[in-house]
Amino acid sequence: MGATRYAAARVRGWGATGAGELRLELEDANAEVSIAEDGSVRLRACTGEKLERPLDPGIGRAPWQPTRTEPRERDGSLWLAHDGRQGTVQVEIRPDPFALRVRARNGESVAELEDLGFAEQGAARIGYRARSGERFLGFGETDGGLDKRGRRLLLRNRDPELSRRGPRYLSIPFFLGFLAEAGASSARGLLLDAFGASRFDVAATHPDRVVIETEADGIDLTIFPGPAPADVLRRFTARVGRTPLPPLWALGHHQSRWSYASEEEVLALAREIRRRRIPTDVIHLDIDYMRGFRVFTWDPRRFPDPKQLVADLSALGFRLVTIVDPGVKRDDAWPVYRDGAQWDDYCRRPDGELFSLRVWPGESVLPDFNREDVRSWWGEQHRPLLDIGVAGIWNDMNEPAGWKRDVRIGRWMLPLQRQDVSSLVQSHPLEPDRRVPHDRVRNLYGLQECRATRGFLECADPEKRPFVLTRSGSAGIQRFAAVWTGDNRSRWSDLRESIPMLLNLSLSGVAFCGADIGGFLFSCSPELYARWIQIGALYPFARTHSMWLKRRQEPWSFGPRVEAIAQRFLELRMRLLPYLYALFREAEENGAPIWRPLLYEFPGDPESAAVEDQVMLGPSLLAAPVLERGARERELHLPPGRWIAWDDDAQYVGPRRLRVHAPLERLPLFLRAGSILPTQSAIRSVAEAPAEPCILEVVPGADGVGTLLADDGETTAYRSGRVARSELRLWHRAGGRLRLEIGRREGDYAVPPRTLRVSLRCCPAPERVTLDGRRLARRDDAPGYGCEAGRLQVRFEDGGESHVLEVDPAP
Ligand code: GLC
To answer: What count of Cα atoms within 13 Å lies in the side-chain half-sphere of residue 740?
Structure first.
């Protein structure tokens, strides 16, 4: 594409559409510029008449809604302006050559686009003016560091197999441009809507330019103003959709292996996990549960009674997730294949023959998920899994991936030659009757499959929140599925890489994401597993998974010391579950990611911008995982403000660099002053009631706010108000006085009466503790307080009323 010749775009004429868009007539092309209520600006441009078709319905997205704006001509430019409650922008379009500049209310430049050009067959190019020092984050799932400046990225979903450079299974043509200079920072986002591959030269060829190229369908991009990264994410996710609140159990630990291959093995695993008291909620079944790898079947010999298996697992507090690959075995004797063939549901070759590729079951065909009837048919095939009680679906190999040739010995196989899918033809999502080369719509394949899967699960049981996990996807995939980052390796480099990779995925809108804990390929050492589970227990999606033939990755496979570490960190996850859950609510409400790079929380701190081996889990917790073999120390950056170390309550004031002792048992974890974290006592699965259901971890040193949230954890009733919600407020007064306000519980969800514990860090024996104006006594029962190792523990009965807790320090 680098050598493609583009004809530069010039504006020849213009007019308003009446629906809010400004139409531009270019030489041999059309363009449209519009502004949404929240100040996001969209530019669509292509040769031909394609502008008429809205893209959103084809991928199940809420439509773009332009505001009505009056275009004006001034100083040889065209101007559009929008002054709304949610955003104010001004757009200037210079006609010759075409250039577009978005400015904020204060006149500051948000984004400048130029060098729009078109080539053969709908290919197009546009340039984004990069500022000196601007960082570029996002792009979905890509190797390397957090900042993609200097990279040339081909965003085409692929199974990378052994080549590890570049974007992988899931690409998202979105970046967050972030600039911090002289104490000020600004952020903006840019999304390219493309069904097929695109290229981003991220200021690699020219340091002041991001060059964006598409292969077809012109350019369709949206600029999301900041000024803060959180503002960009709110706008971007409003456009592509947000992560719906998952069922609570899906936030527990998932244990997986390729494969737990018989009922006995699965049950033995489940019992062992419980016997060893390792918190885990979910077991995954990889491909070997199926009969000859035929999707939607069970191997009758190894899984003779799956329904009973689900019941037995459920009695032990586990849910079962099964893998479903899109490749359907070509087997005329098998009704699922026959049914799909009869309805012409599979992708074809240009000569009209069925397109075949080799996947686990041998010769297989691929459903054409761009057709709605195919999606419903596919969804329906899941009914038997649901009837058995399977709790979630894991969609793999959906780039799609497969081979041309392979060698097989019994059930095992070795792929020899990658299948070339360029000869595949499938429907266009906007015009299902039109068949287009697969490459034109390739990046949608995984998304449309997950849409089918989730769509069915939602219809089959509208009250239940579904769980779908996917390997492939594109912008907006979070509406349908959680994402794991595919086949990583049990290597220190892969552990390290998982941090920026998940941060970038998170910034690309995918809040519910994780990497295989312990690594998938190769064997994991005890030390690597210990370090991986420490941070993996804090991944938004926490699953241990590993490949066949390699060392097993159940926590006890690494000896008692590492098992104890795994247990402790998975317990930490369960203790933090109420906090994590509240973050997921936030992700659904305003698009804030669960995992955040430091710059998201501290945009004004120049040091934070460069940090890519630390994460913020929500606004309150900072983790600095140990990512090096043999390391027993960790150097890290603490952003501005006060911090308290999770383990030993050591206090620090940032910004500063810090070297901490990190023996194998320790993950350097810090609490931000002013935080109020809802936590609970450790449980082994969400099926178990915690001994203490509500512990507020209060971190003095600054004012702060928080939310205490509860719902049934499983149904969609929270959307119609069946929640219990209290707002929390912390006031930090001079001399160390503290006031914690717990707002009255609102909402329809009934929380049984409980004892609430407020745990205050760094709070030696106080002079006085009062609850609602009444002095509390020092005693273990509620209401009362106790002091232990520098922490103050206050207990009182919580029936949902508002409370004010005040603590006066000892003089
Ligand atoms: C793919 C998946 C991996 C899975 C394997 C077998 O490689 O990425 O997670 O275990 O297929 O299904």
So the answer is: 27
Residue 721 CA: distances (Å) to CA of 183, 577, 580, 717, 801: 42, 21, 20, 7, 18
Q: Listing from the earlier edge strand, what are the strands of the sheet with 633-645?
A: 595-596, 615-617, 621-623, 669-672, 633-645, 651-661
Q: Which residues are catalytic?
A: 396, 399, 487
pLDDT digits (tens, 9 = 90+) for 33-73: 999 999 999 999 999 766 767 789 899 999 999 999 889 99
- 241 contacts: CB under 8 Å, gap ≥ 6: 61, 62, 476, 478, 479, 509
Cis peptide before 259 (omega within 30 of 0): yes
pLDDT digits (tens, 9 = 90+) for 594-621: 999 999 999 999 999 999 999 999 999 9
Sign of CA dihedral 484, 486, 489, 491: negative
Q: Which of 477, 538, 547 is nearest to 519 (CA)?
A: 547
Those residues whose C-beta lies under 8 Å from the C-beta of residue 752, and which sit 6 or more positions away, are none
Q: How far apart are the first and last CA of the chain?
A: 72
Ligand 1: lining residues by beta carbon, under 6 Å: 258, 286-287, 323, 396, 471, 486-487, 520, 545
CB of 638 closer than 8 Å to CB of 654: yes
**With contact defined as beta carbons under 8 Å apart, do 119 and 125 qualify?**
yes
Q: Which of 799, 764, 767 is nearest to 783 (CA)?
A: 799
pTM score, whole prediction: 0.98
Rounded to 5 degrees, φ, ψ at 271 are: -65, -40
| Burial classification of residue 502, based on how many CB atoms lie within 10 Å of its CB (0-12 exposed, 13-18 middle, 19 or more buried) | buried
| Strand runs labelled E in 560-632 | 595-596, 615-617, 621-623
Residue with the nearest Cα to atom 4 of ligand 1?
A: 258
